[in-house]
Amino acid sequence: MKEYTRFERARIIGARALQISRGAPLFIKTDKKDPLKIAEEEFEKGVLPFGTREKKPSALVSE
Q: What is the DSSP secondary-structure string of 36-53?
């Protein structure tokens, strides 16, 4: 699994928790009810189908 920064991790888990709170189906079986805790568990198990993209540095442009 890719190493994520704390900011990327927070963004991914937060986005997934919002989806869960709005009724999205779960990717794991769990007894937890809190969308944030469910999203954290899904993230830790590596079952989330999305991640982050690396921003490529733009080329230096001389004028």
A: HHHHHHHHHHT--S----
Integer Cα distance of 5 and 22 in angstroms: 26
**Per-residue model confidence as pLDDT tens digits over 3-54:** 889 999 999 999 999 999 999 999 999 999 999 999 999 999 999 987 677 7
DSSP H helix total and E strand total for the chain: 2, 0
Domains in the chain, start-ordered, CATH in brackets?
Answer: 6-45 (3.90.940.10)
Which is nearest to 53 in space by CA: 18, 8, 6?
8
Within 13 Å of residue 1, how many CA atoms lie on the same side as its CB? 14
Q: Kindly state the tokens that stand for 31.
A: 């007894």
